[in-house]
Design a protein that fits this description.
Shape: globular
Order of helices and strands: EHEHEHEHEEHEHEHEEEHEHH
Strand order of the largest sheet: 2-1-3-5-6-4
Number of helices: 10
Radius of gyration: 19 Å
Structural class: alpha/beta
Strand content: 15-25%
Length: about 280
């Protein structure tokens, strides 16, 4: 029997997830039994779509605008996804669909690979200092990563209400968080970890920041790459993480949730790199 999975969103035609997962199936010897596709799905259509799926469907990857409504569609919600108020993954089990968030642990995986958290908490009274640029959906996931890294967070936002929206999330996660205006975002250059969650071009003005190496700089944009922000950090010899690294890290976790098989990480990485 063919096992099915897909990425859903609107629009979703640009997604690299089908290439990544399909390469993973081939490398793991699952290409004859697993298929991964892309499906356009609006927020108001998700419940009916999930209800229509037969027993061949095992997993769904969710992009915008489906990450919040996914919590209401699922039969069960993983505690992290509930605390974040967003899920990017639905996994079918014997008792229905469970919602997960693999974005937050994916950010953690990518940051740790780049050295984040290594030694940041070793000094007396010292903890990892994380700056998050922007207050949207990816900022929620970044707060989840802050838990794993034992980080306190400063959130830099253009709209004060965006910061207020994230306060309950930080509180639910137990993450110390302060909110600052976007005009002070250049201060982030002195932090241990900087995560830019703003759209393409949104952080370009910060490319002149005086980075305090070895700040780990993560820009969720991956096309075009490097961004001016990432390039300025590279010149300062800071470790850099891209949105492609996050796509891979969260996708690896989804692959394993869907299939129950260890993900062939390098094959999935190569598939992404070949598409950008």
């Amino acid at each position: 029997m063919l096992n099915r999975a897909a990425v859903l969103g609107l629009p979703v035609s640009h997604s690299l997830s089908p290439a990544m997962h399909t390469a993973g199936y081939a490398a793991a010897g699952l290409d004859a039994s697993w298929q991964y596709t892309a499906v356009d799905c609006a927020e108001g259509e998700l419940a009916a779509f999930v209800e229509s799926l037969d027993e061949t469907w095992h997993g769904l990857s969710l992009t915008m605008p489906l990450k919040e409504v996914a919590l209401t569609v699922a039969d069960r919600v993983d505690p992290l996804a509930r605390a974040l108020g967003a899920a990017n993954t639905l996994v079918r089990g014997a008792d229905g669909w469970t919602a997960y968030n693999t974005d937050a642990p994916g950010i953690t995986d990518a940051l740790r690979t780049a050295g984040a958290g290594a030694g940041a908490g070793t000094g007396a009274g010292r903890s990892t200092r994380m700056a998050i640029l922007g207050g949207g959906g990816t900022a929620r996931a970044a707060l989840g990563a802050a838990v794993d890294l034992g980080a306190g967070v400063t959130l830099y936002v253009r709209r004060p209400e965006a910061g207020e929206d994230l306060r309950p999330v930080a509180h639910a996660l137990g993450v110390p968080m302060t909110v600052e205006t976007w005009g002070r975002a250049a201060d982030a250059a002195t932090y241990d970890v900087v995560i830019s969650t703003v759209p393409k071009g949104g952080a370009d003005a910060l490319a002149v920041a005086a980075w305090a190496a070895p700040t780990v700089v993560f820009d969720v944009v991956y096309d075009p790459w490097p961004t001016p922000l990432a390039e300025s950090a590279r010149r300062a010899e800071c470790p850099i993480v891209s949105g492609l690294d996050l796509l891979l890290a969260q996708g690896v976790r989804q692959f394993e949730l869907f299939t129950g098989v260890p993900a062939p990480v390098e094959a999935m990485r190569a598939a992404l790199q070949n598409r950008v």
